[in-house]
Amino acid sequence: MSFKYYDLLSHLTVGIVVFFAIWKFFLPNFEISEWVVIPAGYIVGYFLDAFSSLIEPLLYRTICGKPSDKLLTLVPGEKWTGINKVKFFFAKQAVEALKKDIGDEDATTGKMFGYAMQMVNANKDCRVPDFNGHYALSRAIFTTIIIAVIIAEIKYCCIWYSWPLSIGLLLLAWNRFRERGYYYAREVLNEYLKMKNNK
């Protein structure tokens, strides 16, 4: 059994943060051995990652929908799709190629992106797994910040600077989650088009 960097970062790091938050805020007098912190943090992080995957549809609502849907939705009069930070200039080519490969002119954006992922995941020499790992880590961190802010505000809601600090952290984590989602979806589509051009 092997652990990738994503496993350590997404599970262990965020798990320890939430574990310490719960420990220090709610059980400050409870003694815990340092040898317990790492395995307990990993377990907490594992369930946090599962929880962030579970609430992913809700997280997508905060960024106005799935990045893959936005990238594959042509906008009349625009030369690109996506967001200002992550632009995709080959949406028309990608949509035409995907519909042709699928054999369905009415294919939904979800069906098209699913097919693109299926094709790209067969290629082990691309950067898509790394982008996927970065996206999943950002999603886990965003979920962790949401939970940490809720825990902190229960304890420190009367301190005036706690709210601006909490909102600032949430906005930073939210923006990173949004950008990483678009980077990952764009990389999948770029890799798919690259595979098509190399045939």
Notable features of this structure?
two-stranded antiparallel ribbon; single chain; 199 residues
Assembly type of the chains comes to single chain
Q: Assess the beta-strand content as a share of residues.
A: under 5%
C-alpha geometry:
elongated
SSE sequence, one letter per element: HHHHEEHHHH
Ranges where pLDDT stays below 50 over 5 or more residues in a row are none
The largest sheet, given as strand count, sense and whether it forms a barrel, is:
2 strands, antiparallel
Read across the widest sheet, the strand sequence of neighbours is 1-2
Report how far apart the termini are. Answer: 35 Å
Short description, anyone?
It contains 8 helices and 2 strands, in the order ααααββαααα. 73% of the residues lie in helices and 2% in strands.
Describe this structure in words.
The chain has 8 helices and 2 strands. The mean pLDDT is 87. With 199 residues, the protein is mainly α.
Question: Which secondary structure elements does this structure contain, and how are they paired or packed?
Answer:
Elements: H1 5-26, H2 34-54, H3 56-62, H4 67-71, E1 81-82, E2 87-88, H5 91-102, H6 109-121, H7 128-156, H8 162-198
